[in-house]
């Protein structure tokens, strides 16, 4: 499905990004893995992709820094000569670890710099290179509840940041058409690191708010991502695609 394609997946050392990188490799793509700080985890993903038989490497870049964003694009094109697929998955984890104790303002600043500004910059810069070439696909990551809203600090933070990405995707798709397709995935309750340790109340809510009555998995998201960047989705652009088991509000 993706044989001969060259892909970059930001934030692909763990979680959803890792699953996406591996799924693209299984579909035939060569994959450049990116990580902000987890070098060993990035190398582990590279080893897995190599075992599949695909050309791969990793690069380190702290996307909160503008210079690092420039460097990542340059490294990507140096690695791949031409890039066919660019997936902006990188985001700041403000739900687990030390960041969970940050103030609302600290969390918003970190999310805005990485989840929003870096995604906008990378999508525009990579997308323009693809447009000049005459072909390419950009895929961004949103959040399924950004449009309908969710109460609480986390709901407010992710609504403003992921909602911005979803709106941006629709505009960038128009800017880069017809040569480059731009879409956005909007995952729902996905069992990532935070979900694994979430309270019983959150576990019940995740199942209750899905018509399929279960958590989604990173693999669920990865499979849809692989479809959206493939020729099979060749008539799709400017779309926000929810991967949430069919949201259900009580």
What would you say about this model in short?
With 250 residues, the chain is α/β, with parallel strands linked by helices.
Rounded to an integer, what's the Rg over CA atoms?
A: 17 Å
Mean pLDDT: 94
Low-confidence residue ranges: none
CATH classification class: Alpha Beta
Secondary structure layout:
Elements: E1 6-9, H1 15-26, E2 30-35, H2 39-52, E3 56-60, H3 66-80, E4 85-88, H4 104-133, E5 136-141, H5 153-176, E6 180-187, H6 193-196, H7 200-208, H8 218-228, E7 240-243
Parallel strand pairs: 1-2, 1-4, 2-3, 4-5, 5-6, 6-7
Helix pairs in contact: 1-2, 1-8, 3-4, 4-5
Summarize the structure in words.
With 250 residues, the chain is an alpha/beta fold. It has one domain: NAD(P)-binding Rossmann-like Domain (Rossmann fold). It contains eight helices and seven strands, in the order E-H-E-H-E-H-E-H-E-H-E-H-H-H-E. A seven-stranded parallel beta sheet has the order 3-2-1-4-5-6-7, with helices on both faces. Helix 1 crosses helix 8 and helix 4 packs parallel to helix 5. The relative contact order is 0.14.
């Amino acid at each position: 499905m993706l044989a001969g394609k060259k892909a970059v997946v930001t934030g692909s050392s763990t979680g959803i990004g890792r699953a996406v990188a591996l799924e693209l490799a299984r579909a035939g793509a060569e994959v450049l893995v990116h990580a902000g700080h987890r070098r060993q985890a990035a190398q582990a993903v590279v080893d897995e992709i190599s075992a599949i038989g695909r050309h791969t490497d990793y690069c380190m870049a702290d996307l909160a820094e503008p210079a690092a964003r420039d460097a990542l694009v340059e490294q990507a094109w140096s690695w791949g000569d031409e890039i066919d697929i660019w997936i902006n998955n990188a985001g700041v984890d403000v739900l687990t670890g030390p960041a969970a104790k940050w103030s609302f303002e600290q969390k918003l600043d970190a999310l805005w710099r990485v989840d929003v500004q870096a995604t906008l910059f990378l999508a525009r810069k990579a997308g323009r290179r693809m447009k000049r070439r005459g072909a390419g696909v950009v895929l961004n990551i949103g959040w399924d509840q950004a449009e309908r809203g969710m109460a609480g600090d986390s709901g407010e933070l992710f609504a403003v940041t992921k909602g911005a990405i979803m709106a941006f995707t629709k505009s960038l798709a128009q800017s880069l058409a017809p040569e480059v397709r731009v879409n956005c995935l909007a995952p729902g309750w996905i069992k990532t690191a935070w979900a694994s340790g979430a309270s019983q109340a959150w576990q019940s809510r995740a199942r209750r708010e899905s018509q399929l009555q279960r958590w989604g998995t990173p693999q669920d998201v990865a499979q849809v991502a692989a479809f959206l960047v493939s020729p099979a989705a060749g008539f799709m652009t400017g779309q926000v695609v929810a991967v949430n088991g069919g949201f259900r509000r009580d």
